[in-house]
Amino acid sequence: MVVKKLKIFCGTANPELTEEIGEYLGIPPGISKVTNFCDGETSIDIGESVRGADTFVVQPTCMPTNDNIMVLLIMIDALKRASARRITAVMPYYGYARQERKSKARDPITAKLMANLITKAGADRVVTMDLHAPAIQGFFDIPVDHLLGVPILAEYFFEMQLDNVCVVSPDLGGVTRARGLAERIGASLAIIDKRRPEPNVSEIMNVIGDLEGKTAIMIDDIIDTAGTITHAARALKERGAKEIYTCCTHPVLSGAAIERLENSVIKELIVTNTIPVPPEKRIPKLKVLSVAPLLGEAIARIHEDLSVSKLFD
Length: 313
Hints:
The protein is of the alpha/beta class. The protein is about 30% helix and about 25% strand.
């Protein structure tokens, strides 16, 4: 696919994904260079003309989160000042999405601050995937295309042809996501009711649904320290699940996540490459699926003023 007047630029967070998107679109990434001054400040050099171009900056704001955010903001500003016709921030992973509301007095709402910064920097549009809270779309005063990872995950499990499958939501907030996967692969649904006494700490309270003798597939948007998912997997095993698979869109995998996954009852963890997974974290039970075709098609449709929602019909 050759698209004229379209340019994609690569940030520092996931250059491999940007290359894959470029291959799908049939265009090379735009020429740009990210460096740091001696004091640590970020410098961006756009090495080609973008005047009048429809530009897309691919930059998930994953670890190192704050550095990647600054690269995104400065690159948007550089493109704006270079007279790009339109600038779309392509953020497969939206950092700070879990700080989307006040849970106690004097809490910041950092997800809204992120939206303000991106808009103020000069972005005309945002493309993202599986926001932790879909309502974050409303934090923006510019269009947001919210892509879904469930179809990619569903295709993988559909091809596996697993028998007697039950899709499990690890919390009440993820029921819609779990139901979407269950409907696509023809599985039953179960829900884990848990409470979280403090961040990154969870306690399983109850499992709603029949797991006896079934193959369980737990789905979440993010797996961070893997404490919740491994704890939940153990609870499913105790309730009679035969095999346990887990999947998510965003493999943050921080702290002791890999060690916990290796020592867990989980048979396989399926993730996407919205966040790059370094070689040292690619354990045998980890499978990485690419979101490049989905993002590439979304970019092409935005550029051509076609419907993006049709991708999920």
